Each structure stands twice: as C-alpha cells, then as structure tokens.
C-alpha cells in the first residue's frame, strides 16, 4: 500500500502513538516503511518499537512489529488511546441511531464507552451494563435508569465478569445490545480474551432483540482466543471503515447492515 511521507513528530510519544494507530489498522508494520513515513532513521524507529513492546503495546518481530499478543489483551489505558478519534466518531453515530425510550445492554469495551459518552444526554433510556465506566458516565442523568450487573469486578478496567453477571443479564429482554469485541477473524468470528467476559457477552446477545456491534477497523487485524459470536448474529455494525474487500465480503455474506463512519 502506498503511503504518504510525514514529517516526524518532534515528541517521540506522539510518533509512537501514530505508530500504534498504523499497526492497529494494518496488523503489521516494517521498520523501513516507518522510517520513510516519519522521516527518521531506522534506529529511531527500532527504539520506538522496543519501547512500545516493553510496554506490551505491540509485539516485535524481525524487521518490524505486529499487533500485541493474540492471547493477552492490551492494557486498558493503551486500548483507550488506540484509534481514539475513530472510537469517538463511532460512538457518536451509534448513539444517534438509538431511539429515546429504548432499553439496551452495553458491554465492556472502550468503544462501547464512547457510545455511552454520546448517550449521556438521551432521555428515557434503561441501560443494563457490566461496565463500571459506562455506569459512571450515565448514572448522573436522571432521565437514564442504569442497572449494574453483579459479579466479580476486574481491577484492570472496571468490568463485571463471570457467571453471576451472565445470569443477571439473562433476567432481562432488551430492545438493543451494544457490544464491542477485541478481534474479528477472517471467518467473521468475534473474539475476546477472557472467558468470563465472553459469558456475559453471550448472555447479552441472546437476550436482546437487536444487536449493534461497535468496533474500529483495527479489530480485523487482531487475534484473540475465545469466541463471542459470529457476524451473522449481528444486526448492525458501526465502524470507522471496512479495511479490506475481504472484510466487506464477510459483512455482506453475514447479512450485516454496515454503517461506516469515515473521517
């Protein structure tokens, strides 16, 4: 893929964040390509990649780097900062499609949290969530009733996970589920890292009349070991873009309505 040449940010932190956005979109990146793109030496790029790998934000390979491990998720703060602008656009458009007076599930994820931020001024909503950050965003609005699932809270991100939370979700039948995912594989399977989180996501999907997936294009380049669902179980997919013809074909074959939120 042809890339335009960029002037390298003077601040290495800014350059490293740009590298993470590129690798999130493409899945793999080469040292020489990055050096040309940012107009710096390969040694500078190698130092950037080594620092990012030490922080578990990517995985180093010969000649470049790939997205982080397929068996361990990125740290929460790293996930928040990855494709953050795209997530905010996705959140705004997704929220605009949710009718006032709806009942909805919202599960774990930094993109679902972006949806919650965009919903903060809606009225007449009933929100059932296992995401402490979502609840913290919405509870102050007296026009939104928030119900938190009970269960074990992950200290890393405020997620309520496990059988108790899944059982709590099964006690509702909601208009809409707003869900995120850690990865989407080449067969159209949504994937995650924590089996306890997947138990809750499955209960959410099974007890919603419609399911909205919110995920940025980088999820097509990531790997994770545990199945959540197939794209065919999704009614609506809000994303910044479909990164490849293969991704577009997966959505067509799965009969998923796609809304692309282009920059």
From TrEMBL:
Can you give the residue ranges of the HTH deoR-type domain?
12-67
Listed Pfam families: DeoRC, HTH_DeoR
A molecular function (GO) term: DNA binding
What are the record keywords, sorted? DNA-binding, Repressor, Transcription, Transcription regulation
User: Nucleotide-binding: is it a keyword of this entry?
Assistant: no
This protein's name: DeoR family glycerol-3-phosphate regulon repressor
UniProt source species: Endobacter medicaginis
- Phylogenetic classification of the source organism: Bacteria, Pseudomonadati, Pseudomonadota, Alphaproteobacteria, Acetobacterales
């Amino acid at each position: 893929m042809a890339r335009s040449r960029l002037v390298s940010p003077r601040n290495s932190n800014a350059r490293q964040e740009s590298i993470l956005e590129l690798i999130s979109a493409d899945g793999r990146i080469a040292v020489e390509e990055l050096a040309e793109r940012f107009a710096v030496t390969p040694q500078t790029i190698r130092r950037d990649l080594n620092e990012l790998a030490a922080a578990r934000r990517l995985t180093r390979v010969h000649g470049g780097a790939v997205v982080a491990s397929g068996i361990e998720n990125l740290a929460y703060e790293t996930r928040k900062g990855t494709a953050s602008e795209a997530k905010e656009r996705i959140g705004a458009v997704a929220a605009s499609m949710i009718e006032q007076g709806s009942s909805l599930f919202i599960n774990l994820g930094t993109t679902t949290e972006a949806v919650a931020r965009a919903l903060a001024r809606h009225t007449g909503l009933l929100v059932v969530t296992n995401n402490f950050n979502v609840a913290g965003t919405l509870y102050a609005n007296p026009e939104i009733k928030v119900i938190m699932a009970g269960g074990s809270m992950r200290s890393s991100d405020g997620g309520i996970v496990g059988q108790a939370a899944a059982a709590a979700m099964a006690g509702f039948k909601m208009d809409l589920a707003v869900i995120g995912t850690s990865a989407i594989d080449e067969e159209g399977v949504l994937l995650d890292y924590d089996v306890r989180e997947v138990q809750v996501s499955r209960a959410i999907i099974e007890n919603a009349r419609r399911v909205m997936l919110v995920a940025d294009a980088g999820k097509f380049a990531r790997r994770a070991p545990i199945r959540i669902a197939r794209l065919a179980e999704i009614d609506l997919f809000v994303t910044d873009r479909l990164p490849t013809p293969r991704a577009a074909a997966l959505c067509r074959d799965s009969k998923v309505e796609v809304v692309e939120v282009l920059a």
